[in-house]
Amino acid sequence: MARLRCLLVAFVLLAAALRLPGDAIASRGHHGPAAHDYRDALAKSILFFEGQRSGKLPPSQRMSWRRDSGLSDGSAAKVDLVGGYHDAGDNVKFGFPMAFSMTMLAWSVVEFGGLMKSELQHARDAVRWGADYLLKATAHPDTIYVQVGDATKDHACWERPEDMDTPRTVYKVDPGTPGSDVAAETAAALAAASLVFRKSDPAYASRLVARAKRVFEFADKHRGSYSTGLAADVCPYYCSYSGYQDELLWGAAWLHRATKSPMYLSYIQTNGQVLGADESDNTFGWDNKHAGARVLIAKSFLVQRLGALHEYKAHADGFICSMVPGTATDATQYTRGGLLFRLSDSNMQYVTSSAFLLLTYAKYLAFAKGSVRCGGGVAVTPQRLRAIARRQVDYLLGSNPMGMSYMVGYGARYPRRIHHRASSLPSVAAHPGRIGCSQGFTALYAGGANPNVLVGAVVGGPDMQDRFPDERNDHEHSEPATYINAPLVGALAYLAHSYGQL
To answer: Which are the catalytic amino acids?
Structure first.
């Protein structure tokens, strides 16, 4: 069995070297041995979120080298904003990527939570930690608190969250400073989270969906991008480069799924084209939600048989076909090793989000006994979509030219010098004394491994040549982020189940 596994991995690597993304190999189905321990990777991908927590940590905290932080967040604005997540390797709480991360984590649970078994409760806990914070951030009508921390001053320091002494300035959107993008994303996150708790905690779910409705109404009524009024504070970190139209469509799609209200169906039908439903943008991530909205709305046609949304099947097909190698509409670049490559900065976020959409759309297609028609009349089956997604996940976990897992703590070889303040500095247990703002930079430029292993963290990943230097100061490739992990949770749950590991 071990020899067969080695041969399979070798075959995948050979195909990668020949610029084959691996889907042809996997099209035989799941009869052979799994290339990876997807169940172990799933558990670790969820555990990572505990390392990103801000606020008062619960007794159940498993990432034990972290301690309480940000306990006065929001006090400057006389509002309780304690809790939530740091998005990546710094100590700012950016509401825009945090909300997207929660939408995708919730979607992972909604689609594949039934397969997670013992990990389901941990996944729910991770969603609730973020949802609780978003409830706080939207507690005041027509106001959404979208950031805690002066990003410029935070980035001028290298310090543990537990030691933060940079300004915890609070930023908000309201009717005078609109932010339809961040507001509609927040509404999407709340609506998606409500589905996670619909059966296990119906009272909490009702609270989440009620808040989602109110926040979406604000987003739609007071239109504008938060990058306009808050440009000096949110840019260049998380500017809304794609505008706010995609988030309005995305938010309406999630509210339709959570409420089944004809009001949101009507909204999608009336506004879809104006909001860019048929645009050919094929990058799905924290900024641009069009592709995700297309797949989500297409479910209503494929599964619920809502004929009024039939065009979203074509819109979703367009995105999916852009990732299928060898079709006339193939618009995706792959590295020689077979990794989907969108952008050099944190490319792995597009790998995980695209893999999730491939698996989710394959699920909807299989239910409807359908397929995707790509350019030239090529019929692409759900099985092939799953194979393409699996190839991406396998690359991430170590089936790549470097032989390296890009998930910290998974496999024998993984990134040891990730761009992450808390991981790179001694823990409070190891060094109880405060580490000052400038003092911490010694760790940033040091050559040794990080003292704290941020288990489950997925970094930005290799460059276009499949190279990864593992340098702490290389944030483009070495920084983890919640929005990289969130969609991966669902993909790993599916793969672990399909190979009999769950």
So the answer is: 90, 419, 470, 479
